């Protein structure tokens, strides 16, 4: 089972900082923290936890990013394994990077991540990719600073 935490990302100061990401991961008591705000995708593993930022599906403008790269992610959770597919549009083509995150047994605090990539025509982005959230429950709460957060249990 994985606990997945979800926050907007403006709470992570400085933006994208590993220590701040770990703080929010601990606060939400999750194995995977999904955050945003930066409009740039990233996949990070820290201290056996997984931190993912799907970026911006439209490649939204940000003054500190010179290249707009539309991106989104699909996450497939199965048992103690998560496969993450990161889609980026570059030059009219979809580039797909796959990462796998395996949760160790509860007696171990480490995890393993592997990745591979492929490229396809932009039209292939609409293929039959999906993720299963069967037997999932979710909960939401507000944090002390007024921001909303969610946790999904699979």
Automatic annotation (TrEMBL):
Leader peptide range in chain numbering: none
Annotated Calcineurin-like phosphoesterase domain residues: 2-77
Pfam families to which the protein is assigned, alphabetical: Metallophos_2
TM spans (from-to): none
Region named Disordered: 100-154
Biased segments, Low complexity type: 106-154
Alphabetized InterPro entries for the sequence: Calcineurin-like_PHP_lpxH (IPR024654), Metallo-depent_PP-like (IPR029052), Phosphodiesterase_MJ0936/Vps29 (IPR000979)
Entries under SUPFAM superfamilies matching the protein: Metallo-dependent phosphatases
Assigned protein family: Belongs to the VPS29 family.
Protein name: Vacuolar protein sorting-associated protein 29
Protein source organism: Cystoisospora suis
């Amino acid at each position: 089972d994985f606990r997945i935490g979800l926050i907007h990302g403006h709470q992570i100061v400085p933006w994208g900082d590993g220590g701040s990401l770990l703080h929010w991961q601990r606060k939400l008591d999750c194995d995977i923290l999904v955050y945003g705000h930066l409009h740039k995708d990233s996949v990070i593993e820290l201290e056996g936890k997984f931190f993912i930022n799907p970026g911006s599906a439209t490649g939204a403008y940000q003054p500190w990013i010179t290249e707009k790269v539309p991106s989104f992610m699909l996450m497939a959770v199965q048992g103690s394994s998560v496969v993450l597919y990161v889609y980026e549009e570059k030059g009219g083509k979809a580039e797909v990077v796959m990462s796998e995150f395996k949760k160790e047994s509860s007696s171990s605090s480490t995890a393993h991540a592997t990745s591979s990539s492929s490229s396809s025509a932009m039209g292939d982005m609409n293929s039959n990719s999906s993720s299963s959230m069967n037997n999932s429950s979710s909960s939401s709460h507000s944090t002390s600073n007024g921001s909303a957060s969610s946790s999904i249990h699979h």
